[in-house]
Design a protein that fits this description.
It is built from three helices and nine strands. It is of the alpha+beta class. The termini are close together.
Length: 129
Amino acid sequence: MPHHSRLAGFIIDCEDAVLDAAAGFWSAALGLPVLDPDEGGEGHYARLDGSRHGLHIEVQRVEHPSRVHLDVESDDIEAEAARLVALGATEVARPRNGRWIVLQAPTGQRFCVVRAREALDARNATRHG
């Protein structure tokens, strides 16, 4: 099925971190202001303002080891995940009732396929299918 996808940005996973402190560090380190210190109101996500660079950047409090992972956004996450699995990725999880899909590249890196935050078309994304 034809669909679009693109790099949305990256998520900075911080194991057992105090969200405000972690967001403050990464905000200063990257020179990006904190746009939303508690996105979603659950104390798990702080959004940095990466809009100047066309990126969605979040600091995320997690229980697994700290790492950075990419988010690929798509107007059809099922089709995009299937495309990436056909390329060699493996599915790892579908958190929050499938709101996004966690995949692992053949080279070991985990990344997420997420729903597009804005309309995707030939001007701002790659068309597949």
